[in-house]
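Ex. 9. Protein: Tetratricopeptide repeat protein.
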Amino acid sequence: MKFFKALFGSKEEKPEEKKKAEEAKNFDVLKYDGVRALRAGQAEFAIRCFTHALQMQDDLEIHDYLSQAYIRTGELTLAYEQLQKLAEAQPDNQQIFIRMANVAYMMEDYGAMAGACEKAMLIDDKTAEVMYLYARACIGQEDVTNAVAMLTKAISLKEDYGDAYLLRGETLLKNGDTDEADEDATWLIEHTEDNEDVMMLKARIERAKGNTDAAIDYYTKVTDANPFNIDAYRERGELRLATGDEKGGNEDIEHAKELTAQLPENNDEEGIENKVKEKYKSMDPYGVF
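Predicted structure tokens for Tetratricopeptide repeat protein:
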């Protein structure tokens, strides 16, 4: 037997090599089981797979997947920590800082959000999305002037940036600049079709201008587009009451209360998931997410 082993170069696998091969196999199984679970919406199982895999071997791709899984479960601080590890490993990757800004926004940590945007701008200051996110951070810090400036820059970099027009219009309206807000609303109406967020902005602008009938018409367009929009029913109800339409106004306000009662509690799993989705939606009102 020894003669044949020597002749053909055959050798037994060393215990250390066998152990490494087994660990590599287990690592791959955990990694791809985690990916499959994440894609199937089984975030908690995915987290267990990824966490165990990282105990065996550090891997940037798994840190990325793990951050996504933590976002799905609403564990945003843990998601941010994973993205920080990615940023340390790839400091010139702007997309990592963009994702950090998004997670910081969901955490309502506007200082961290601004910091992530500033680092992203150092890599490339011509990215419209970064300007938009920076504006979000400014709004969170009640810095309206810089928010409008960042949104204007975002639009200059991307002329059809509908999200930026919408956010700038909403920001201008809150600041009392109804005429400038109306310019953004008009652009959006001309370039979108039956978008409830655009119609909501226009309704509120008309209400602020004192154009009650026009405001009610736009609120009605909102409820036609989305019959579950609580704010539209409540605000239309308030206007109807102000015009003397007690029946219509009370019906709207009562319906708004009924819809509110159907919302999930903020402390349950569904409530956390919905909160995360709402945060994404507010950054992406055209429904890409």
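Check your answer against this statement. Residues 284-289 have pLDDT under 50 and may be disordered.
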